[in-house]
Amino acid sequence: MLSTLWNFLVTLQLFNQSDMKTIVLPVTVFSQALASHHSVPRFLLVVFWVWMQLLYFTVTNQTFGTAPEEDAVNKPNRPIPAKRISVDSAILLGWVLAPLNVALSYYAGAVPAGLGICILTSIYCRGGGHSHWLSKNGCCAGFYALFEYGATQIADSSKELTYDQLGAVVGSALIIFTTIHAQDFRDDEGDALLGRRTFTLSFPLFSRITMPTFLIAWSMALCLISEANRFVLLALMGLGAVTGTRFLILKSPKHDRLSYLYYNIWLSMAHVGLSSFSLDRVVAWYQ
């Protein structure tokens, strides 16, 4: 009995495995940085809520369309190609998770975010949101905003976020929308074979030019609107310039994978800057 339960829990974790460092960890840290109050029970609730919302998305995403066949080739360690769970059972799991997550969001005090993630998951997986670069980037930005909004609400035990907290969440979504195609360069060869219309394939040269442009521009903007430590912001500027230049000049899949690692470090530092977002500084800058 215990062995069966353990195997089931391992299967659930494998659905989320590849997104732990890109969703669960950064969203949790970001929400704690934004929150004005902290407690161990609330922290644990944030982690569990984020993990469960992510699980609903990953289960749905890995069972939709040709995903099982693609994963069998590109990501054989995922639960379905690894034969840990059948497609039909995974689909049933997704249907169970949807109302369960809404109930969890009600308990945690993050109903709008929980419902939003369910709706956006349907748009992304069933509504074709994944099929075009514009809708894909938009959905990714929306997911981050909803995860961060809900997690911050839970961390702060608050129904409404402050203007500074909302500004940080919106800023995060805009950064994701304009730079998330950093993850697509490394997969260009495989995406081309599958006929996908990613931003990097649709605009090969322009997409690379946007990397130093946006990474440097966002770093400069954060220097103006954030009250974070000056050394952190200067490091953000330097890493943004180096990472953006790498994407522009070094174009092999091997280099793109390493550049994407640097991008994730830059993104984490950008969120450190956003966690000290000040609306007053924005107003003063415009004046």
From TrEMBL:
Main location: membrane
Annotated GO MF terms: transferase activity, transferring alkyl or aryl (other than methyl) groups
The keyword Transmembrane helix belongs to this UniProt entry's keyword annotation: yes
Cellular compartments per GO CC: membrane
Superkingdom of the organism of origin: Eukaryota
Transmembrane stretches, start-end: 40-59, 104-125, 205-225, 231-249, 261-279
Subcellular location: Membrane
Keywords, comma-separated and alphabetical: Membrane, Transmembrane, Transmembrane helix
Pfam families, alphabetized: UbiA
Membrane topology: Multi-pass membrane protein
Protein name: UbiA prenyltransferase family
Record organism: Lentinula raphanica
